[in-house]
Amino acid sequence: MGANQLTIVIVVVAVVIVLLALAFWRKRRREKLRQRFGPEYDRVLAQEKDVRKAEGVLEFRARRREQFEIHPLSTEGKSSYAGRWGEVQARFVDDPRRAVTLADHLVTDVIQARGYPVGEFEQQAADLSVDYPTIVDSYRAAHDIAERHRAGQATTEDLRQAMVHYRALFRNY
């Protein structure tokens, strides 16, 4: 085997090793994102229709989340929000429409008290998906019903379902 042939073999082997390492890295990255984001990974993938783009979106969310100073609620804060939540639930019997509106505002208050930025809903949900990937769908569903309610398009059953979703959120704060 001549020097040129040996050089070609070495280059080919090096390229194969680099390609295998890249494939392994991508697979590990994908596994980590799937594990971290759970069902949110699949939702973003369906939305973006491209694995690399979806994974880029999720990585951006994680980097953005690192900039926030998220903290647990104080004992007093937990007690206060739990009391307010109890009042909202009790109100549902007599005034389900008002209860859903109050629940939506209360969740936003809790999110903000924990240190998450509030503003445009989709960004809020994206920010929460980093820490709460399994319940962010409940947040989206509840908020969607609250929006339909504001437009006069939600039934009492829809409002009941929104309260079930909001309750799932409160159990995790």
Structure description:
The protein is mainly alpha-helical. It contains eight helices and no strands. It has two domains: 3-66; 75-171, no CATH class. Helix 3 (51-66) packs across helix 6 (121-131) and helix 5 runs parallel beside helix 8.
Observed structural traits:
single chain; 173 residues; mainly alpha; 82% helix; 2 domains
Share of residues in helices: over 70%
How large a portion of the residues is in β-strands, by DSSP E? Answer: under 5%
Low-confidence stretches: none
Give the mean pLDDT: 91
Short description:
The chain has 173 residues and is mainly alpha-helical. The chain is 82% helix and 0% strand. The chain has helices spanning 3-37, 39-48, 51-66, 75-94, 96-114, 121-131, 136-150, 156-171.
What order do the helices and strands come in, and which of them pair?
Blueprint: H1 3-37, H2 39-48, H3 51-66, H4 75-94, H5 96-114, H6 121-131, H7 136-150, H8 156-171
Helix pairs in contact: 1-2, 2-3, 3-6, 4-5, 5-7, 5-8, 6-7, 7-8
